[in-house]
Each structure stands twice: as structure tokens, then as C-alpha cells.
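Hey, quick one: can you model this chain's 3D structure?
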Amino acid sequence: MNLTEVRNLFDIPEDVSYLNFASLSPQLRSVTSAGIQALQKKAAPWEIQAPDWFSGGEELRVHAARVINAAADDIALIASVSYGISIAAANIPVSKGQQIVVMDEEYPSNYYAWRELSKASGAEVLTVKKGEVSWTEALLESISSSTAIVAIANCHWTNGAMVDLVQISEKTRSVGAALVIDASQAMGVYPIDVEAIQPDFLVSVGYKWLLGPYGLGYLYASPKWQKEGRPIEYSWRSKSGSENFAALVNYRDEYQPGARRFDTGELPGFIHAPMSIEALKQLNAWGVPAIQFVLAGLTREVARQASSMGLSFPAGAEQAGHMIGINLPGGIPEALKEELNKEKIYVGYRGKGIRISPYLYTTMDDIDRLMQVIRRHI
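Sure thing. Here's the predicted structure for all 378 residues.
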């Protein structure tokens, strides 16, 4: 993989060190081009035919499924993670006295729906704190016969601390609970195999590691929920036979096959679809394992330099290769933020730490520039 050529695929100025990929990815030039062409096509609606309302979505499912070792039928196209989590919360049964297990300081999109469900059902939201052990150990200790749902991420969004999803899945299924995963900080950058993990639902945004536009995400639904699940809205396209526009007034109870019943109405749309397809084609051409390998080398260098400064961060197997959070004593000085902005070095600020998430265009010079600024402020 020629990393110089990769950088040229993005529209990033030479003096910019963008190390905040986990927040919002830069856009591939090819994705921008696909969006412009789509906008131009929409300007001539008489050229859009009935099959065009479906074809983009179907191709998109194929490419998205490949990223997580799923089938196209397993994928629903959704507007956001909160939408996908709401689908899970509307379907998984939970009763008074049971527990919904979540991670401490979880991203809000994978928390609020569970809090509302707990209010309505009388269940308890059990917030697991990591403490001195790994996230995997802390979660395994918290899953019990009282657990109804385990709703977690594959790695913590603030610093990349990992969770072993296979171990968690085995424990979750052993107590008869359901597993819901927010994979927004993994899908497209860290290998995920839904056949091995067997989640009930897995959701991800499309605008981070999947390189797509804002406003389109993905939901994996297990075979059980593809048959039994109830959507939270009732789009005309989710019903069987909707390809026949002339027969739409012949209302149907049957859904389109697979996870399509959970699609957000109007998605993927004439503009989102070609942009996302172009993004996923490039992503799958690189390959998720190759991406993870390159980024792990960059974050190891961050860890090495942070260690030499006496800064703390998740270590070893507990650390995702594609992002790392380092904690500064006393928090992050405003002067540090100001200097980073002045030097056009962009990172994420999460709590008391700096979250660093590079990509294939990142060089060791980018890492050195960042760490030199940090060193001046500790």
C-alpha cells in the first residue's frame, strides 16, 4: 500500500495533520465526485426510473455486509446509531428486575434509549466501570442471570480501550440475554466477524471509518430478528412488492426479505447511495486487516512517545490499533489546544484526555509534530 498515493486520494492540504478520524473522516475525492454526479442526476428527475429507487440500496448492502462478514440480507440502512439502537430497544424483551448492562461513559447514542426502556419496563441500567481490570473482565463479571441486554461498543470511544466481543457474546448467550453492539469505532477499521460474535443487533455510523457521508448508517440484524422484528417506522419501500409502483395502494402485511424491514424511510437516497458505495468499494479494496495493521504502527509510536513523557493510556492487547487516548496530568491546558490549532494539528478532546485517531494518509512526521507540541505543555 503506497501511503503517499493514499493521501492524494483525499483533499487534505500538505500543512494539515488530521488525527481526528474517529470523529469525522475526510472525504475521498472519488466520494465527492460521486456526490456531485448524483446531485446533477437529481436535477433531471425524468431520467430516474423505478428501479433506481432500489438499486443503489441493494448494491450498498452488498458492500457493507462484506466489511463484517455478513450477507446483504442482514443489513438495514439507517439514519443514525440512535435509530438503530432504538430498533433494538423496541424489540428485545426486558422485565422489571432485570438489568441492561452498559459501559461507563458510553457514547449517548447507545445510552439514552436504554434509560428510557428502563423507565418504561422497571429494569435497571447497570453501568459497568472499568476500574483496574480490562473492559472485558469488568463486563464478564457484571453479566449474570439478571441480565436481559448487554449494550456495548467494541472499544471505548474516548480512548480505544478494547472489548473482546466473542467472550462477551458467549457469556451473554449463556445467561439468555441479548447482545447489542455499537461498532461505530470499529466497522471499517477493525476486523469484525458477525458469524463469530453472533450479536442480536450491530449498528454503525457511516461517516467515520466507513468513509461515507453524514446521515447514513448500517444495522446488522440477526436471523431471528429478520423474521420476528418490528420496525419503528413503516416505509412503503420496506413492504413486499413495493417495486411495483402501480400496486402500492394494494397494502401488504409482508415485508421485504431480511433486515430490510428496519430501513429508515427515504434511505439510502439518490445522493447518499452512490457516495457510500464509492467509499465502501475503496475500503474493501484496501481491506480492513491491512488498514488496522498500518494504523497500529502509528498508534504504537504515539504510545512510545507518551510513555517517555510519563503519560497514561490503555496498554497492550487492551488497546485498539486505530486510535489511542492519552491522559495529561491535570487535564488539557487551553494553551495546548490553541497551539495545536495554530499548527493545524487536529485531534479529539475526550474528558481529560486527547484522543488520537490517524488514518492511512498519516505519516510519522504527523505523529512527531503532535507529540512535540504536547511535550511543551506537560
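One thing worth noting: The CA atoms of residues 131 and 138 lie 8 Å apart.
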